[in-house]
Fold this protein.
Amino acid sequence: MRQIFLDTETTGLYPDQGHRIIEIAAVESINRRLTGQNFHVYLNPEREIDLAAQEVHGITLEFLQDKPLFAEKADDFCLFIQDAELIIHNAPFDVGFLNAELGRIGLQQVSQISAKITDTLRMAKDSRPGQRNNLDALCRHFGIDNTKRTLHGALLDAELLAEVYFAMTRGQDSLMMDLVQEKASEQMHTALDTPKYIRVLYASDEEIAQHDIYVQALTKAGAKPW
């Protein structure tokens, strides 16, 4: 199973107010193992960054001036996430921004490109109702080292999200592994217990004659031969 852990940083909170994506990170996992194949890019938003947003991620407009536009990286991004399950913390936020960027250049929405979208914030709220479920809180809960996270950065956050997701779903994974191992064990025992062929041994003429004599003797003695 191919899964992509995705995070974005933006100029502000609302794409319908013209805010743009300035960083995208997508970290690939296959069968719950990170492959080292990532998509990571900074983007020129062609607009100012809200001060509150800049205080969160620390990315300045000056730093982004020579970075590519989203349109220049859109095809590579779409190819990377194609047919994969996207795993995102607070998915409606990131997907809303991605759909706005894709819509500006006439491309399909995220849900039409990827196979599935999973929101880990919703998962965390369902399993930990009434508790703080942001990424930092989940890292503390699962004992994941997030000391490098002094500011929000899409790549680091996507990597941390992968660890959090694996920790959140570890029980499910163990259950599936147990079922697979149990099935394999059953198949092995079946293969060992079932002979490949059955050898049939027929009685010889001499053995048949001796058996008849024995039965006759029992009959004369008044015993039933069956």
Remarks:
- The first strand starts at residue 2 and ends at 10.
- Residues 1 and 31 are 5 Å apart (CA to CA).
- Residues 173-180 have pLDDT under 50 and may be disordered.
